[in-house]
């Protein structure tokens, strides 16, 4: 049966691959954003005093040393509380069509609001944040400079969102290839061909190589579902939305392990096997996995300028 799935996918994918335009687009090399507002957002992003016990900041679960993601299977919030999902990378999140695994936030500003209120993440209320910021002379001066006003919670979200917009990672090798500035190695090129022929490109496409659609995990062979998973079912309550998630970006994928919504895949090799089995219906061999990994290594971009050490 698995061989039949492989043949069907290869036949149906080959036609679209041969005659379609390039399905992946390079990230812009430059992105306009308000630098003063983004710098204020960076300070807020790394400040643990925005949490109820002063131990958790946005950066706690979106590490700059780990591609903007969390190296732990699930995030740890205030008072040691465990979350129910692996925190995805914040890098290039500006290019996602919705935010969070289940897309419950329409944009970065709405997304920033979620963890601050969540009792197992930062467990904070706007009034306490505003009080803290107003009592801090340095913060007061920055808000006055950027917003021409006293610190307000809405400004906090606005500044954090502007900082996250600035976390884009241009000029990965594959973007340079798309711009005809370099060539892929034979193994990298083979990995990209397989990526398209196996149908991975169906979900992982566009500027962010994902982040632009909802798809089911366990399309061919079902994946275990748990009631606390942050899937579309948590929002719609429709049975068909169980294990349906926003497709994650593949940019900087080699930096952001572990993988999947539950953090259950520790390596790229493991997540490739899981995805091919559950969503394609067959197992990949070592040669195929090695080629796909080689291709994915070309997706690592530059460190965002706003967090580069000066």
TrEMBL record:
Its cofactor is heme. Coiled coil: none annotated. It is found in: Periplasm. The keyword rRNA processing does not apply. It comes from the Bacteria. The keyword Heme applies. Residues 36-167, 186-300 form the Cytochrome c domain. Heme c 1 binds at residues 58, 61-62. One of its GO terms (cellular component) is periplasmic space. Binds 2 heme groups. This is Cytochrome c peroxidase. Heme c 2 binds at residues 200, 203-204, 275. InterPro entries: Cyt_c-like_dom, Cyt_c-like_dom_sf, Cytochrome_c_Peroxidase/MauG, Di-haem_cyt_c_peroxidsae, MauG/Cytc_peroxidase. It comes from Hydrogenimonas thermophila. GO terms for molecular function: cytochrome-c peroxidase activity; electron transfer activity; heme binding; metal ion binding. Binds 2 heme groups per subunit. Keywords: Heme, Iron, Metal-binding, Oxidoreductase, Periplasm, Peroxidase, Signal.
């Amino acid at each position: 049966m698995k061989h039949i799935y492989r043949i069907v996918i290869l036949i149906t994918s080959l036609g679209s691959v041969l005659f379609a335009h390039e399905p992946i687009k390079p990230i812009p090399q430059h992105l306009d954003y308000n630098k003063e507002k983004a710098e204020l957002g960076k300070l807020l992003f790394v400040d643990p005093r925005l949490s109820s016990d002063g131990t958790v900041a946005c950066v706690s679960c979106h590490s700059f040393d780990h591609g903007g993601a969390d190296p732990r299977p699930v995030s740890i919030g205030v008072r040691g509380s465990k979350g129910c999902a692996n925190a995805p990378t914040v890098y290039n999140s500006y290019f996602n069509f919705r935010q969070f695994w289940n897309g419950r936030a329409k944009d970065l500003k709405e997304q920033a609001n979620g963890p601050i209120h969540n009792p197992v993440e930062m467990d904070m209320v706007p009034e306490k944040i505003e009080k803290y910021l107003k009592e801090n002379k340095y913060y007061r001066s920055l808000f006055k400079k950027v917003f021409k006003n006293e610190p307000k919670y809405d400004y906090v979200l606005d500044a954090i969102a502007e900082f996250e917009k600035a976390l884009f990672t241009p000029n990965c090798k594959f973007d340079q290839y798309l711009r005809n500035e370099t060539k892929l190695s034979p193994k990298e090129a083979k990995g990209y061909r397989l990526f398209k022929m196996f149908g991975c490109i169906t979900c992982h496409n566009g500027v962010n190589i994902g982040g632009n659609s909802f798809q089911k995990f366990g399309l061919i062979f079902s994946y275990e579902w748990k009631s606390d998973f942050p899937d579309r079912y948590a929002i719609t309550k429709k049975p068909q939305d169980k294990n349906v998630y926003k497709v994650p970006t593949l940019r900087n994928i080699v930096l952001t392990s572990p993988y999947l919504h539950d953090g259950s895949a520790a390596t790229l090799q493991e997540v490739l096997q899981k995805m091919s089995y559950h969503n394609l219906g067959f197992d990949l061999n070592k040669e195929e996995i090695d080629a796909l990994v080689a291709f994915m290594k070309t997706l690592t971009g530059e460190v965002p300028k706003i967090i580069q050490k000066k």
